[in-house]
């Protein structure tokens, strides 16, 4: 379906269009897949993120709709995430390597993973797709299902797909959220010092 919503951020100075236009929908088109070259592109974008001492502690479990991996990820989403995220073409589990193979603590692993996830999202949006990250996930069942080593924290899941109309969402609350105004704290509130 065609996107008719204008979800562009209202900013106090011009910012990159891809940042201003990125938003997190819950209505994805179940009939359209993200092409393989675009999946590779957003994973490449994540790969080229900055990280502490270039440790690159991000890892991903990628499930394409119709595969057992995708179904397993959906199964371990929490609450209402399960109601909408299964329609996304691709689900990516985001993991942080908090301990190196040599046993060293990697203090910035979560920070670095966040940057990689943000970079992935921006690349996908730039390429015409939409992304919705989720923290509402069942970490322990995901760990067991994918046999994830304790050195890794399972942090979040990213849904990537093609935007559909809000009307495609079965739940009225979700439909309302899809069109609710996008809000942010004022910039001044974020600046603890700004001399
Ligand atoms: C780490 C993280 C966890 C999130 N968890 C959820 C979630 O479990 N379910 C959900 O629907 N949205 C989730 N979101 C999406 C946020 O609610 C959303 O990004 C925020 O409201 C701002 O909206 P915008 O991305 O459209 O600007 C999460 C986002 C992030 C970055």
Automatic annotation (TrEMBL):
The keyword Oxidoreductase applies. Keywords: Oxidoreductase. Residues 19-77 form the Nitroreductase domain. One of its GO terms (molecular function) is oxidoreductase activity. InterPro entries: Nitroreductase, Nitroreductase-like. Pfam families: Nitroreductase. Transmembrane segments: none annotated. Belongs to the nitroreductase family. This is Nitroreductase.
């Amino acid at each position: 379906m065609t996107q008719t919503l204008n979800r562009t951020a209202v900013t106090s100075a011009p910012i990159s269009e891809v940042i201003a236009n990125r938003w997190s929908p819950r209505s994805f088109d179940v009939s359209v897949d993200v092409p393989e070259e675009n999946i590779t592109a957003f994973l490449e974008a994540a790969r080229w993120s900055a990280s502490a001492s270039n440790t690159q502690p991000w890892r991903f479990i990628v499930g394409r709709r119709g595969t057992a991996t995708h179904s397993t990820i959906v199964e371990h989403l929490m609450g209402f995430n399960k109601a909408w995220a299964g329609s996304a073409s691709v689900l990516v589990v985001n993991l942080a390597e908090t301990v190196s193979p040599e046993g060293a603590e990697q203090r910035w692993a979560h920070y670095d993973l966040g940057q990689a996830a943000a970079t992935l999202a921006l690349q996908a949006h730039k390429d015409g797709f939409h992304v919705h990250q989720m923290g509402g996930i069942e970490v322990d069942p995901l760990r067991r299902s994918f046999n994830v080593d304790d050195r890794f924290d399972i942090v979040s899941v990213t849904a990537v797909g093609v935007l559909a109309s809000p009307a495609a969402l079965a739940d009225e609350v979700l439909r309302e959220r899809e069109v609710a105004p996008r809000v942010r704290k004022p910039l001044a509130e974020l600046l603890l010092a700004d001399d």
